[in-house]
Design goal:
heterodimer, A: 112 residues, mainly beta, 6-stranded mixed beta sheet, 11 strands, globular, B: 114 residues, 7-stranded mixed beta sheet, 4-stranded antiparallel beta sheet
Chain lengths: 112, 114
């Protein structure tokens, strides 16, 4: 079945550093979604990507929908302590019904 | 605030018991999804309802069941609870049929089985 490989599993960085994480798959997706989850909270949608090659920003966050439609990356620039959390990617296909696959998450730790 | 509400926020119960988790989707959303997240794990899809009908099933145990009511709120029923059922349970909703199915998550219910 379809699977997403999200990497890295965790990152320990210094405040002010840039961060990059990605998701890859052997399958093609129609939509890529990036969520952030803080401890004890529900995932919050950060960025949605709908077209291959699309590059979208949300403040210090930038995400791209890969040209092959099999991957996506999320970059965070100038990280701050409140960026701490788990970042999930999700790929979606529409084959008469929507199917959404979530990655395992990237745990981000930011040291002030 | 995503607009998706879940109650209760916390639930502590004993093994063998039965509990009901409730979810109200965002206004206008017809789809409701249920996910389970165990400690330090990813999101495990359980089940989806669309406008009152079951649409998709994931890794949902037979001891678990769900339904979506005419007012579109949904309930997840967990019975014969085991210690391993302790987890965060999230509900998500998405807008009516369109070209995408972006899901918006509620704050979750933390279930502790003692």
């Amino acid at each position: 079945g379809q699977q997403l490989n999200q990497s890295p599993q965790s990152m320990f960085i210094q405040e002010g550093e840039d961060v990059s994480m990605n998701c890859t798959s052997s399958s093609i997706f129609n939509t890529w979604l990036w969520y952030k989850q803080e401890p004890g909270e529900g995932p919050v949608l950060l960025i949605a990507l709908y077209k291959a090659g699309e590059l979208t920003s949300n403040g210090r966050l930038t995400a791209q929908f890969g040209i092959t439609r099999k991957d996506s990356f999320l970059n965070i620039s100038a990280s701050i302590p409140s960026d701490v959390g788990i970042y999930f990617c999700a790929g979606q296909v529409n084959t008469g019904g929507f199917k959404t696959i979530f990655g395992a998450g990237t745990r981000l730790f930011v040291k002030a | 605030d995503s607009g998706v509400t879940q109650t209760p926020k916390h639930l502590i119960t004993a093994t063998g018991q039965r509990v009901t988790l409730r979810c109200s989707p965002r206004s206008g959303d017809l789809s409701v999804y249920w996910y389970q997240q165990s400690l330090d794990q990813g999101l495990q899809f359980l089940i989806q309802y669309y406008n009152g009908e079951e649409r998709a099933k994931g890794n949902i145990l037979e001891r678990f069941s769900a339904q979506q009511f005419p007012d579109l709120h949904s309930e997840l029923n967990l019975s014969s609870l085991e210690l391993g059922d302790s987890a965060l349970y999230f509900c998500a909703s998405s807008p009516p049929r369109g070209s995408t199915d972006t899901q918006y998550f509620g704050p979750g219910t933390r279930l502790t089985v003692l």
